[in-house]
């Protein structure tokens, strides 16, 4: 385990969307994935150059290969192997399709894959497949999870939280435990891509869910983290009564601050849910973009936040979802409309969760 990172110098997570091609048409898809690969995707050589750049962040940099469905690329094992040789921790988030065969997983395992992340958005096949828009997706996901377990590949489960899935969370928690997953990553809906047609839960419900997730984390055999709900850290601190010491201990990871995303065409975003480009890896290093671009530097400045996020004592450990702020207001520094917490003395208004025009 690496020591505490300097989030101004290195992201905790670097995601590379290797393709937007995918067989599925999931309701929540951030990428608005398409059946065919884009002709301007980063090539194998350009992908290796990106991995070379990523290794300059430091030994053990975590790289997540995502999509679309990354298995739509035939060079995926080559990329995993190359990244592993550069000292990167290579992980994968495929789609729940029949492309995830035991044979392909074994090939990726041999190439050095460190973790497999699968999405489960319902406690059974009916709920999951309805949300995913594809019959058989749940069955394919379960088969992939079993294949990963047989290969001793650590398994992560990703779940989207919105009005359509929130009642399924207890059943999904049970599945995560049954699958011997090492981590449950709970994504709170950001209205981008196809996700614009889904219904977010309201802030009061989100607060209750976050408190419940904290209870789950205390009891579960697996780890738990949230994505695009950094106020989970504030809830955890309140539940544990950590006070000022907790403010100093916890890192405020959010879009652009500990997190970076490279699109299939090489554009660098603070997050896949915050599609505001800071540059292209075809023109400059992802390291320089992350460290020096005005957008990333601004997002890492806790004092630049506005509205109730800027007034909040928890802004250094939370700071709100910059992606949701951007999606709903057009301003990545605005208040996160999903958070129910109101700082003492703050009298301003809070934006709603409808996507910005």
From TrEMBL:
SMART domains: Elp3. It comes from the Archaea. PROSITE patterns: RADICAL_SAM. Residues 8-219 form the Radical SAM core domain. GO terms for molecular function: 4 iron, 4 sulfur cluster binding; catalytic activity; metal ion binding. InterPro entries: Aldolase_TIM, Elp3/MiaA/NifB-like_rSAM, PqqE-like, Radical_SAM_PqqE_MftC-like, rSAM, rSAM_sf. Its cofactor is [4Fe-4S] cluster. Keywords: 4Fe-4S, Iron, Iron-sulfur, Metal-binding, S-adenosyl-L-methionine. The keyword Zinc does not apply. The keyword Iron-sulfur applies. This is Coenzyme PQQ synthesis protein. It comes from Haloarcula marismortui (strain ATCC 43049 / DSM 3752 / JCM 8966 / VKM B-1809).
